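Structure in, sequence out. Go:
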């Protein structure tokens, strides 16, 4: 039997699904959310059973990698039920990887269960190693709790990648320390440029720090070697000769990474976004709820993949007063 595949109009195989299991979060990172967010009413959300059915439909269509994200995925009530349910696809071999992007605040509690259900790698977002700055960036977060969570995940045997958003005037003096912290613990570090998603309280042009500048500065201290390493994501990697560890650069603004895009995203209400940087979406909740079998759902997925756009056109400049996309990253999932 041939493996089913979803192929978009530009010949890209869609094999990676990112699922935002909740739009809620226990942090309020300044680049991601405003301080007073209005979250979706709970009845709007897909139940965990519905999320399982939706993910399983995508796996039946050839999705090999599934990432649970949010909001903060580990604050969704009973999230372990979903992880255990999805782990059957790892056991059968239909799914190659089940992974998370998390802020780490709940990792101390969940790391060993995640490992038990077959999660092998996770991304943890930490923008600074300074507790006061961490509080300022996340508004509500406690760095020590996150660092403990990272240690718990390492003890559980999870492979960790650290994600940090590069913020002008905030953490740009810390990247050398973060490289050491990460590489001493066998973790890769990925730096991300701020993307214009959703209304926030501040001005994004104040936060935007092009990674081309960061990389050039790093070369004063470190020997960076270009390597062809790929994780199925948009990061370009270099190896730091002195530490042996890797640094990834995600540059949606200075480099367009759409040509090799293999992913689609689902919100916690069942909206399928074919591109993080475009507004077009397909509602999958209606076909999911319309019948118990998956025929309508499957047809709706095919129809949506057939209109996956070629790419995004993010711009951050002072003339564009509004974000490129009104949704917050926490809705579509980072
Ligand atoms: N709460 C989890 C976390 O923070 O890892 C998962 C969701 S969060 C939306 C996923 C990633 O998106 C995080 O690494 C976060 O730093 C990043 N992110 C959020 N808003 C962003 C923005 N406007 N531009 C760039 N990255 C953003
Ligand atoms: Fe929450 Fe993650 Fe957004 Fe921070 S980046 S507010 S942790 S969803």
């Amino acid at each position: 039997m041939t493996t089913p595949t979803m192929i978009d109009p530009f010949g890209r195989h869609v094999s990676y699904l990112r699922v935002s299991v909740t739009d809620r979060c226990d942090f309020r990172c300044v680049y991601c959310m405003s301080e007073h967010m209005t979250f979706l009413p709970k009845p709007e959300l897909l139940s965990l059973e519905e999320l399982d059915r939706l993910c399983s439909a995508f796996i039946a269509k050839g999705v090999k990698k599934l990432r649970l994200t949010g909001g903060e995925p580990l604050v969704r009530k009973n999230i372990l039920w979903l992880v255990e349910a999805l782990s059957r696809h790892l056991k059968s071999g239909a799914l190659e990887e089940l992974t998370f992007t998390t802020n780490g605040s709940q990792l101390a509690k969940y790391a060993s269960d995640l490992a038990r259900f077959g999660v092998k790698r996770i991304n943890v977002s930490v923008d600074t190693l300074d507790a006061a700055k961490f509080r300022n960036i996340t508004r509500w977060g406690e760095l020590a709790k996150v660092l403990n969570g990272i240690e718990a995940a390492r003890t559980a045997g999870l492979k960790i990648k650290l994600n940090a958003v590069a913020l002008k005037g905030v953490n740009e003096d810390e990247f050398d320390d973060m490289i050491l912290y990460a590489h001493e613990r066998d973790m890769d570090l990925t730096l991300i440029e701020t993307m214009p998603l959703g209304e926030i309280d501040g001005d994004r042009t104040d936060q935007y720090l092009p990674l081309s500048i960061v990389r050039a500065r790093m070369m004063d201290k470190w020997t960076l070697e270009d390597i062809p390493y790929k994780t199925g994501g948009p990061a370009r990697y270099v190896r730091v000769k002195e530490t042996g560890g890797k640094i990834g650069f995600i540059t949606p603004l200075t480099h367009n990474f759409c040509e090799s895009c293999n992913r689609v995203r689902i919100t916690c209400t069942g909206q399928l976004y074919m591109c993080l940087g475009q507004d077009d979406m397909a509602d999958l909740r209606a076909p999911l709820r319309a019948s118990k079998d998956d025929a309508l759902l499957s047809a709706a997925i095919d129809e949506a993949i057939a209109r996956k756009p070629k790419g995004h056109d993010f711009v951050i400049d002072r003339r564009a007063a509004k974000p490129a996309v009104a949704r917050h990253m926490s809705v579509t999932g980072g």
